[in-house]
Amino acid sequence: MKKIVLLFAIIAIGTSSFAQDVKYGIKGGLNLANCAGDDLKGDSRADIYFGGFMRTNFTECLAFQTELIYSRQGSKEDSEGSNLQFKTNFLNIPLLLRAKMFGTDKLFAVAGPQIGIHLSSEFEEDGETADYDKAMRDFDLSFDFGLEFDLNKQFSIEARYNFGITKIFNDDYVEIDAKNSVFQIGIAASF
């Protein structure tokens, strides 16, 4: 964990030294998460995400944005009268490029890789829960893309989709080819 925080600090300091303008902020919103894969047929699970970001403007049209986000993910399924929920928590670190779209000062496209650090997981069936931490891999790699719309100089709204590139389950425990699939909608405030 200390290495990840150190990496985040190095990226933040390194990019800010070459930049014209640096903004910091907080963000949060709604996750609609699922586990995508050939062996799965679950439904999206609604939960929250929140965290902070640092945006370094290279030009008027292009910026680098790194974030540190706590994200509650997983999936759910209602089958044969049973309510099944897979709940998992990640610390996500998106590394994004943010580019102005269509010549406007308000609409931006964002895209880039995301590193996910698994924090905890549990499987719940009809109120009974079981720890699922050992079945999960420690790290997840995803790709994010989406849109941000600046309401004013301080507030913006965002819609983003991140799809997993690596499997989330440890093959020694669960032989399912599952990857994270998360749609996010939220709001950000910059300082």
What is the count of helical runs?
Answer: 1
Based on secondary structure, the structural category is mainly beta
Largest sheet: 8 strands, antiparallel, barrel
What percent strand? over 45%
Cα Rg: 18 Å
Compute the separation of the termini in Å. Answer: 27 Å
Which segments are poorly predicted (pLDDT under 50) over 5 or more consecutive residues?
Answer: none
**Helical coverage, percent range:** under 10%
Let me know the number of strands: 9
Task: Write out key terms for the chains shown.
191 residues, mainly beta, Porin, 8-stranded antiparallel β-barrel, 1 helix
Question: What would you say about this model in short?
Answer:
Helix content is 8%, strand content 64%.
Secondary-structure map with pairings?
Elements: H1 2-17, E1 21-36, E2 45-57, E3 62-79, E4 82-100, E5 107-125, E6 128-131, E7 139-150, E8 155-164, E9 179-190
Antiparallel strand pairs: 1-2, 1-9, 2-3, 3-4, 4-5, 5-6, 5-7, 7-8, 8-9
InterPro entries: Beta-barrel_OMP_2, OMP/PagP_B-barrel
Organism: Labilibaculum manganireducens
Keywords: Signal
